[in-house]
Design brief:
540 residues, alpha+beta, five-stranded mixed beta sheet, two-stranded antiparallel sheet, 11 strands, 50% helix, 10% strand, extended
Length: 540
């Protein structure tokens, strides 16, 4: 207007005032897509109903029905446009998951319509989803529906498929792929590398190889670098709002950058490294040995019994800190095996931990663990990374442990026993610690078989029932006691009490039956060991 009228043009404030005075409640002045003072006309409910009753009535019921539906649609659309929706800030995760918030997001008229249409049980989620899809379709540039953006982000995290998100967006079920990307870049620019944690939360870092786009024809344009995450326990309740902002690549680089430090080794103290003797677990904790023995004694006497892990979950109880929050840190675009990459990772972790006044802990897999340990051992006492605690990952620790068992039990017949169940090549991988899940199951099977044989030796009165009375379909005992045998019913009853938590694991150790059976088992193991030594010509 200033271009047309020059200095005589009305100011923005005055023009806005005169428009509101003239049109009253028939217009609304809002901000739209970053543009201020956007004026739109709105039809209020009175005008819509007045127009409906002023119409010329007809005797055609179908025409009347269409007119009523159109009038209802205008009323609902007017309510949608009249509501004030927040588009400058994305809805939080708690709001997306809240049924009450998503229901209140819908105008009352739209709620009433959908409740009448969708009357099935547990239909609240469907009503919220369909209602928000209608609102998003009615004013696509004026609202960000919580369930729409939530579904889009979830699909992108789960599948990473632009085609899937755009297809569902075209059908009106979720936000566009562009909006999902805008949400993620906005979140990345707001959060950066900051971690919100309190003093009662434990934080540790994990670093490992990360690969992307490895299936190219020529091998170019691939990514092979170091990925870092932070795990905070217990979970972080993130209530920080994410504003909807426009970000550039330079903005993301500025908030998600890890400084690269060149590593140059000056010492080699790894030759003097000595591993200290581990503290015996029995010095810090006395496990309920009676429970382990009861499990081995009772399992053959029970038709169906859970495995060791299942029994532990049933009988043990206590407090735990709950699930952890996993926070992604920036990546380092250098080969993870490079010493400078590992050194830069350690410096970054040390800086993060110092800013939160927490212990510096990081977990690597086996190759990176050894290199990181080498770097820390060769650092001076004044180095900022000297106090970093480097941990070997739990999976690689288990692999090393299983490989140690295979090495110690080499040529003992263990491979031949496992070979009766597993293929020959699989047994080799199990004993070297490569096939972890199969190795754990195989070792448990061998342990159960050997313990069952030991119990048969320790309690020779337990005999298999080979009578002809067991041809019926009722469940039978694997072992039936003779007159002087252990009371099987008592063992069963004791085991059931433990599973139902009527008897605590520590109380099993004081049970007279378990004490007697444990002593008998120890004596039998000693007899077997003495017999084996005699077979090799050793005198005791």
């Amino acid at each position: 207007m200033r271009e047309l009228c020059g200095d005589n043009a009305y100011s923005t404030v005055y023009m806005k005032k005169r428009v509101i005075e003239h049109f009253g409640g028939r217009v609304t002045v809002t901000e739209f897509n970053g543009k201020h003072n956007v004026i739109t006309f709105k039809s209020n409910a009175d005008a819509i109903l007045h127009a409906f009753y002023r119409r010329n009535g007809t005797n055609d019921s179908e025409s009347e029905k269409r007119m009523i539906i159109k009038t209802a649609a205008k009323l609902i659309f007017n309510d949608i446009k009249s509501d004030k929706y927040q588009k400058e800030i994305y809805p939080s995760s708690s709001e997306v998951m809240s049924s009450d918030f998503n229901m209140k997001f819908l105008p009352n008229s739209l709620q009433l319509l959908l409740i009448e249409l969708v009357s099935s049980k547990k239909s609240e989620k469907k009503i919220c989803s369909i209602g928000q899809a209608i609102i998003q379709a009615a004013i696509p540039k004026g609202v960000i529906a919580p369930l729409q953006i939530g579904l889009g982000v979830q699909l992108h995290h789960q599948f990473g498929s632009k085609f899937l998100i755009e297809t569902l967006h075209t059908l009106g079920f979720c936000s566009s792929y562009h909006e999902v990307q805008k949400f993620e870049t906005s979140a990345a620019s707001v959060y950066g590398t900051t971690i919100q944690k309190s003093s009662d939360q434990f934080m540790q870092f994990v670093a490992d190889n990360v690969d992307h786009n490895t299936g190219t024809l020529d091998g170019f344009n691939t990514f092979h670098g170091m990925g870092i995450i932070a795990a905070v326990t217990p979970v972080i309740e993130n209530k920080r709002a994410i504003p909807r902002v426009t970000t550039t690549n330079e903005d993301l680089i500025a908030v998600g950058k890890i400084n690269i430090h060149q590593y140059k080794q000056t010492l080699n103290t790894m030759e003097l490294l000595k591993f200290k003797k581990l503290v015996d677990v029995y010095d810090t904790y006395q496990p309920p040995k009676g429970l382990d023995f009861l499990i081995q004694l009772a399992r053959p006497l029970r038709l169906q019994s859970p495995g060791w892990s299942g029994i532990m979950q049933m009988v043990q109880s206590g407090n735990h800190p709950g699930k952890s929050s996993v926070i992604f840190m920036p990546m380092i675009d250098i080969s993870p095996g490079d010493m400078s990459c590992i050194y830069s990772t350690l410096k970054f972790v040390a800086l993060q931990c110092r800013s939160h006044s927490t212990t510096q802990v990081i977990t690597f897999d086996q190759p990176l663990y050894w290199k990181a340990l080498n770097i820390i051992m060769n650092e001076s006492e004044e180095s900022e990374i000297k106090n970093v605690v480097v941990r070997l990952g739990g999976f690689h620790t288990e692999m090393s442990f299983l490989g140690s068992i295979g090495r110690l039990m080499e040529n003992s017949g263990l491979a031949e026993i496992l070979g009766t169940i597993y293929a020959a090549n699989t047994v080799g991988h199990m004993l070297t610690g490569k096939a972890v899940s199969r190795a754990v199951r195989g070792h448990f099977l061998v342990h159960d078989v050997l313990y069952t044989l030991l119990i048969e030796k320790a309690f020779p009165q337990l005999q298999q029932d080979n009578s002809d009375d067991n041809n019926n379909n009722e469940p039978i005992d694997e072992f039936i006691p003779n007159a002087n045998s252990v009371d099987v019913d008592t063992v069963r009853e004791l085991f059931e009490k433990v599973l139902s938590k009527e008897l605590l694991p520590d109380e099993v150790n004081e049970n007279h039956l378990i004490k007697t059976c444990t002593l008998n088992s120890k004596m039998q193991r000693r007899r077997i060991k003495i017999a084996e030594l005699h077979n090799f010509g050793c005198n005791i």
